[in-house]
Amino acid sequence: MFNKYKPLNLYTNFAEAAERFPRQAIYFDETLTAFPELQLQTTYAESKEALIKKATQLQKIGVKKGEKIIIYKSAKFDTYLLAVAASYLGAVPIMISEHLPAETMDILVARLDDPWMVFDGDTAAKAQTLKNLPASKLIAVEDILATAFDQPCEQECLTPDTISYMTHTSGTTGVPKLIAHSANSMGWRTKWQKNILSLIRKRGLVAFHISPVHSRFNIGISSLMAKGFPLLPIANPSRSNISRVLKDYAPMVLETHPNHFVQWASLAREEPSVFESVKYYHSTFDAINKETMATFLRCSKYRLPVFLQVYGQSECGPMIMRFHTKSTLKTTNARAMGIGMPGLTKARIVNKDGKPVRTGVSGNIQMFSKGRALTYYKETPRFEENVYGAWWDSGDYGVKSRLGGLSLLDRQVDLVDKIDSTLAIEDALLDELTFLDEVVIIRGKNGSPQPIIAVSEHAEMNWDLWWKKVSDLPHLNEPILMNYEEMPRTATMKIQRLELERSLQSSEN
């Protein structure tokens, strides 16, 4: 099962996969702004040639080895392809969510010392108003497409320990931090991922809707291509599009953010045939409630479908894993995230002073990962605040069982007085109240637990069931209803809880 370690150069990995599996397919649900020539279907080999062309065009515009280039555009697969093209030049792609406002972008641009920036129609208005980036460093996607050249340029490589890729934190507690990765740190993460993929014997179609600016995206795509899987990156996560795309392509594997699975669960209950082709579900970033997982597993036409839940963090990559089936979910605590991968990842629980605690005692979750990021760019002291030798303080709060299983209880900054785990209560409510798309418990007036809920667009709020369900729980304030789309979120659809708290406090003043 276990795969050999190899540093990850984005382009080299792509090219090697194209050489081994040239005719393997990549499908799209929308045409790609920066790669219109690929249309709605391409192959590994065709997309590799398009990458070299795009890299050459970027070089003609002026991008050089070692320079930083921000990819700040609509969330599609070509965001990743542009990063691969940048890596072909030996440039450093900086992956930034299109949702970040211009004010935040100006801070990040200043931190990056005169970078380039690629933008498209979705981000043009913000990109063109930046104060810290001259117009000469702005590259519209249309400018790339219109750049002529005679001969393709040659690949250039950075050394394996050099910063070669950057992502950013969610920014839930302020301006996002820039997370620096090297070919070596990313290589350990792909080894972890390829070990998981080795369990899948058939190379069936893999569909996924994941933020392309998150480190999870490049690790996932690089690993899938190294194993030769056909790909179906989904740009539009709307119910109607998901229904159409999954019926048309019938993927064997489906991955998305936990919150998208929660939102799609109503579709799975109403039209289970949409997901019947899926044998393997994959969710990462956060824990997900049991009923949501069970709903999707019941849709599958396979006798033993599997839901793989992975707990990880941008700074450390994929960490803790657990495989769920329809039978195991009956007795599973969804807060129980599982175990690490021997030799690559593990977790421990410590007190506020960073000292390990006894089994069964709650505390701060610290992670050991061979794929830990290098630093926060230009903010090394902030990175070092979380470093405890070989261990990284995740900012999460949890507990370990006698058998070594890790349970996630809360974010350290989100703890609510007199509640052991807000996440466990949210899970319980989502498990029972299937007319809800979201439940978030934050600190309300005087620190009291305040639920914020979103009702599914195809359902109505059932107050009788709500009050019946919460009667056995710790006291909760009367819930505040919000539209799902109005809840502030990160690029990976996590709720920005502190932002919700600030908004609530502002409305009360």
UniProtKB/TrEMBL annotation:
It comes from the Bacteria. Keywords: Ligase. Residues 14-377 form the AMP-dependent synthetase/ligase domain. SUPFAM superfamilies: Acetyl-CoA synthetase-like (SSF56801). Pfam families: AMP-binding. InterPro entries: AMP-binding_CS, AMP-dep_synth/lig_dom, ANL_N_sf, ATP-dep_AMP-bd_enzyme. The keyword Metal-binding does not apply. The keyword Signal does not apply. This is Acyl-coenzyme A synthetase/AMP-(Fatty) acid ligase. It comes from Listeria rocourtiae. The lineage of its organism: Bacteria, Bacillati, Bacillota, Bacilli, Bacillales.
